[in-house]
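ASSEMBLY PREDICTION REQUEST
Request ID: AP-0331
Submitted by: J.K., bench scientist
Number of chains: three
Total residues: 950
Priority: normal
Notes: Please return the full assembly, not individual chains.
Input sequences:
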Amino acid sequence: MSTRGRKRILSLFGLVLLAGALLAAPAPAAPKRVMPLPNAPMRVMSLNVCTDQLAMALAAPGQLVSVSFLAREPSLSMLHEEAKEYLANRGLAEEVFLQKPDLVVTGTYSLHNTSALLKRLGFAVEEFSFVQTLDTIPGEIRRMGSLLGRQDRAEEIATRFAAELADIKRRQCDRRPSAIAYDQNGVALGRGTLADSVLEAAGFRNLAADLGVVGMTPFPLEQIVVQRPDVIITGKPAGAPTLGAQVPRHPAIAALPGTRIGAFVPEGSWSCGAPSVIEAVRALARLRAEIAPCPAPDHNSSERDAGEKPLRAFPHPALGAPR
Amino acid sequence: MRLTVDNIRVSLGGRLVVNGVSLSIEPGRVVGLLGPNGAGKSTLMRALAGQVAASGTMTLGPHDLTGAFCSQVESPDVRINAEKQRDRPVQRFYETLHRSRIGPAERARLIAYLPQARAIGWRLKVRDLVALGRLPWRSFGSRASAEDHAVVDRAMALMDVTALADRIATELSGGEQARVLAARAVAQHTPLLIADEPASGLDPAHQITMMQALRRLAGDGRTVLVSLHDLTLAARWCDEIVMLKEGTLAAAGTPETVLTDERLAEIYGVRAHRARDAKGLILAPVDLIGASDQP
Amino acid sequence: MRPALLNTGLAVLALGLFVLSLLVGPADLRFDESILGLFAAAQYHGEGAGIIMREIRLPRALLGLGIGISLGLSGAVLQGFLRNPLAEPGIIGVSATAALGAVAVFYSGLAGSSLYALPAGALIGALTAVLILLAIAARQGSTLTLILAGVALSSLAGALTSLVLNLSPNPFAAYEIIFWLLGSLKDRSMEHVALALPLMALGWLLIALSARAIDALSLGEEAAASLGIHMGRARFLIVAGVALSVGAATAVAGTIGFIGLVVPHLIRPLTDRLPSSLLLPAALGGAALLLAADSAARLVLPAGELNVGVLTALIGAPFFLWLVMRVRREML
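STATUS: Completed
Returned structure:
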């Protein structure tokens, strides 16, 4: 297969992953009876697992009629239980046509043809880009809020999200262990990805980004052995087996001494730029504090390097200095 | 070795193709198997060579070859045959008992069979092809011995293909291929050689070479059973003739006694010109019975 | 060429490419580092070079060797047995059906996520394919019948493989279609070696035992039977041998095509052309070709890494076309 094709598939992965995360902030005890603004859409349909997360978090009761079938997938969607209350769609134009929604929300990339067709048929289609980071999430929440006529609710969630994120970031220090998000088929998440910003916020160095990886890219197993990250974050194997899921469980990784390997983030929490991402940040920040505790604030930070290792070619005691 | 067969029956596709043929052939004899197309010559030979399932008994010298009548090549026909026999459990049991007496490898050291179809699968050298005849005599994985080489050389000389030894067999003419394949069967060095139409497609000189070669094998004490369509060759070179008609034995004996005008008329529907010289009968079919006498 | 010379040459070539395969990889290990990593004492076990050499590159090279032998040997024995110069496990659909079997058992989750499901399913698939092909094509003996049957079987198996992967409840499964259709040796481990190598070796043994039969079959089935070949046993040896070696190979590496076609053809003119003389050289040549292709796959696109099945198809498919045209003119 061509690199082009492979990149395409990878970006599809990315979109799917990204698409799920926004909503998981603990179901806010918000006033349930708040109705959307008078001119707000009454029948909203979401075709993408990431817009699903935002819409489910924000919509007024009865306002959202359908979410994508992937919203029920625990590995992609933190709101998978809630998603079962909505009609599931597969992103087909015909399904939209039958539902006659007055607003369709979807991703910019994943269903490109469908979006164009729906627009031609006169549906109101709003597309969300999912090339995003932690910083873009409050904006996305607010945008969805205003589309749904739920600005107040959106403001509340976005503000809480930003505050919590700032609080976690404040508690970081110079001790930054290295980590890599390594999943299906040995794909790593590099610079510009949501995972990269999550790792950064939680106080880790993203090994893939440091090595110049941009976006989702296959990362050679051998490089992981050479670099020996402190933490390898893998997905929890989803229900049915795949070969790709075996790669992060390769014996070569298991043989690395002193490297922690695991899921570490709650399932489905960081696959989409949704409020749920904060769960991932929180979990990773806890992990970092455990691996490399920050000195008490009034200490001088002279031992700052304890958790940080320089990038290296692979060192071997018998062979002298690394090249 | 003396070949004795008794009451051989073969059915193909539910039809009895060979129906109770019994024969006895002394060693050192060339026996011609004759009969019109469809008389069952090839089927009888395949049965004797153990290629199709058959009932009856067969011995070669001290060897009981009845067990050789197991189905080695499972043709669809044979499967039908086997189904037909399902309602004859006693006979099947009897055959099973005998099946174990002789294995395919041992049989291959007793009987060489030259099929009518001339199949050469790869671009083999003539010498390598003829040497395949030594397979039954070589243990698994062993190299050809000096004796193997000597036997192969003699077989090639006998069939007049020594000059072709280093040629590619698939590039030879049809007649040359026939002699090369015959040399393979000769190299098998068995007491009994069964050859199905070995002379067809050969030029007159090589037809005579082929028949002389078979005679020479018989001269070494081997038994040769050869099917022929050419009455002239049969009359001239065979010690005995076995004549089949519709799956049964029509006649057996010396060419003089079997190839009578009456029998040629009855079985082939032809009239033949006959003469004699010091070496025996000269027989040449000249016309159909009932046809006009115009030349 | 003298057989001993040919076999020695090919063995040296295969060994050299085995070493090359050990030396190629994204981690820029120097030669001495690699050797130390491979053979260093236990105290270096936790070290990078040791892990890379022993857990990543050695299994990969071993699989390249074993799978190459399996494919070369299977191609040679099938061509000999069927008297058909175009026979090859990939072309006649054995590999594709083996992949289908592996996919059906593994992705259904019947065996949990255990890797043992892969060879089990692949063996069943390969066996089914060989039996179907023998039933359809062996008796007719026509080159065309066999190839057409193989094309049908391949397409069907490929389509069903895609179907099974698409039906998997795991959304990532569908992306693995490529692996199963155009195989790869990437990121295999010693588990895969332990899983596949014993089965493949048993297959090689069975195929080797059929050497006399395929020689005798050069003269057709009747002549072969008269030469003392037990056709039923020969058929069993070849069916089981090919199913075991190709099934196990496909289970761990997906479908790698054309090696069994190209190698016997390149090597046949160097032998006396008896099918049995081709077995050992075809096995060694298959190993050399796959190891070379797999090393090339890592060098062509170091980061992304090409599937080795893509490379073998790029080499093999034009070769196949050329061969089809040649076979039409002269039966080989």
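REVIEWER COMMENTS: Confidence is low (pLDDT under 50) at residues 68-100 of chain B.
SIGN-OFF: pending second reviewer
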